[in-house]
Amino acid sequence: MIASPLDALREMAKALDAEFTAVPSCPVTSGSSAGADALWHDASALDAWRAEHLVGAPRAAIVVAVWPEQHVSTPFTDISPTDFARRSEWPFAAWCAALGVAASRCADGGAVVALTERPSPLDCAGWAPESGAADAVEALVRSLARSEGHRGVRINGITTPARLAPDHTVAPLPSLPSFPGRIEHEVTEAVAMLLGPGVAGVTGTIIHADCGRSWR
Fold this sequence. Notes:
- The protein has 5 helices and 6 strands.
- By secondary structure, it is an alpha/beta fold.
């Protein structure tokens, strides 16, 4: 499991009996000074991390989850360019590095699952950077599924609004009363499903583990 060093993701790794590899965090925090805010674009830590982890034994199954330590809902018109970069551009760069490592290290015939935080469409107000980043990761999943398919590698994605859901949902209500879903149950079970042999023909697909809040 290649993921941000959060307790919930470490617990998922334990549940999946997975080795845990931490992804570097953005070098800036919301409390940093104006001068330090410019550091969000410094990707040297990601470059070094990627070079280190591209080398190693292949793995039959890999989960990737690049999540921030915490979230803050903000109206789009109130988000500064620096805040947008910190909440969207840096995470996407980290996703590119992490998924690149996962695709390279995945053994022939293996599977990769990208676990993304994404607000459900009805609840996306205040989450513009996170919504954009989630859509960008979906595009990466489709692209990698095409490029790695000749090796028999399946690459899919799962989204969860577990940490982004509002306190009160607007109608129509989610199909399942367990909305937004727990990371340790609904989300982990969905990840295990996509890593398993029962979905041998599924690749380039995104599953929303949000208890029916999203549908097509």
